[in-house]
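ok so i was messing around last nite and threw this chain in just to see what happens. nothing serious, just curious
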Amino acid sequence: MFDVYLDNRRNLLVLKKGDAIPLDARSVAWRKSKKRSVAVSDEIRSAVQTKGYYIRRASEFKRGR
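result:
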């Protein structure tokens, strides 16, 4: 399972369940989503496995990157 966090700009942070927010992302006020995700895309799963987290900026999502 994965924990999903959102900030006030609708950026997305995905972590393994129970992991702490990484130090480089602590400057932002993250709100934990009430829903936990069981399944995520392969891109997110591989990023969480290698880096321990996945961050997506809302502006990147809107532009289709």
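not much to say yet. The helical segments are 42-51, 58-63.
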